[in-house]
Amino acid sequence: MKILMVTAEAVPYAKTGGLADSVASLARELQKGGDDVRLLLPLYRGMDELHRKNMYPLPHPLAIHLGREHWARVHELIEPSGLRVYFLEYQRYFDRARIYDDHDEGNGRRCAFADNPERFALLCRAALDLPGLTGWVPDIFHCHDWMAGLVPVFLETRDRNGPLRHSASVLTVHNLAHQGYADRSILAFAGLPSDLFRADRLEACGGVNFLKGGLYFANKLTTVSPTYAEEIRSAEFGCGLQDVLNFRGGDLLGIMNGIDGTSWDPASDPLIPHHYSRDRMEGKALCKKDFFHNHFPTSDIGSPLFVAISRLYAQKGLDVLADVLPKIFASMDVRVAILGAGDRNLEIKFCQLAAQYADRIHVTIGYDEGLAHRLEAAGDFFLMPSRFEPCGLNQLYSLRYGTLPIVRSTGGLRDSVLSYDERTGSGTGFVFHDLGNRALYDTIGWACHCYHNRPDHMDIMVRRAMEQDFGWTRSAARYRECYRWALESKGA
Ligand code: ADP
Prior knowledge:
Elements: E1 2-6, H1 18-32, E2 36-42, H2 49-53, E3 56-57, E4 62-65, E5 69-78, E6 84-89, H3 91-94, E7 101-103, E8 110-112, H4 116-134, E9 140-144, H5 150-156, E10 168-173, E11 181-182, H6 186-190, E12 203-204, E13 207-209, H7 210-217, E14 220-223, H8 226-231, H9 242-247, E15 252-254, H10 282-295, E16 305-312, H11 318-331, E17 335-342, H12 344-356, E18 361-365, H13 369-378, E19 381-384, H14 394-400, E20 404-408, H15 411-416, E21 430-432, H16 437-453, H17 455-467, H18 473-489
Parallel strand pairs: 1-2, 1-9, 2-6, 9-10, 10-14, 14-15, 16-17, 16-19, 17-18, 19-20, 20-21
Antiparallel strand pairs: 3-5, 4-5, 5-6, 7-8, 11-13, 12-13
Helix pairs in contact: 4-5, 5-7, 10-13, 11-12, 11-16
């Protein structure tokens, strides 16, 4: 099958979160299985020189047929595996250091770029105009999140009877909270018919909603875990789109994200100081020892280490952790390490905690791939008290690294972590339900109790966690099935 992935992010070229990991590893897995997969994403300013050196511009510029014609250059990079990546160069929109937002000089907060709808409408239209330039016509346009939400809209309206009439679209929702709102004038900008401005098409709250359009028009819909696929059909998690998701419920699948088992393997990870595996666990203890030596030099290595690596936004529930930590430090002998960036107030709160409890908590504000790996290897427990979590990757990395996840029972966390049963020692982590100070405090206490009093249970849980298979093979097979259904429903 010929599949074009349309995305704003893909590892290793551009990343703000799990979307980038998920798109790239799915593409590589499908390619490995024999499909002809290509990626289209914008060429951002921040892209590594190393990648730029390996790209070649296509001989002719691309005409992008929005309301008026725009001209862009497309660069092609062929990865060693044979995967082709197209980079859309349109400097006015993408020659920016960050992908979606910038710092507001006034208050230091991030502000989404005001022209995000135009930027990603251009990306979407480019996906449909690209086959005219390359001669390569995808069977499937696989669209990721709102940034690619207009692709199915174009395909089923303007391109319905054109050369792409046999191509189908699949839209994957990686996070329903981001939907892409625009003024209704975006329809004229995109060259889309104005009669799409209806509540049962693209209109929402008096504007145009890219994701809603994609949800209406894509041939099949997926999201990144089975539980999240259920949750988003309810008012609590539907972010206002539950009605369209129920309307399209028969076409909606939940397919769990996998992880890239090559970059995230404690037996060979070049970013961690000592390697280990299920049968040779000494390396994990040494990773913890190194971390303590560097950051908690006076602490007893016997204290459990709780780690968190995350965007610091309300979704992740770490504000609750910040609230509850003083009480935890007052009653439990634990060490905590946090790596993250995001909400300025939360960043400040964690820094204040680090100043106040310097021998108990280590905080790094920022994005640091190497430290993320070292923390996964050093930790005993991984904290992920998310309010909602479409899939979550960090709990999957944690399982692989034998760092038992402490998670709230939502979305992909619920689908991937089995709660500890103290009678039998079964489970792969600690699962709680309410998101409140009390529930998190109690669950951390429960984990500490198990750590100190049931080392036998800890031991089997760690090994069981490391045995879990969250590779891409199974999930890629489900996507293939989904592509076939999409083509069938298109009548191709
Ligand atoms: P989300 O996509 O909602 O941010 P996920 O758990 O699905 O959450 O994916 C987050 C990805 O980003 C993981 O690969 C994680 O390791 C990485 N990550 C998040 N914050 C940081 C950070 N501050 N430093 C390094 N990696 C980070």
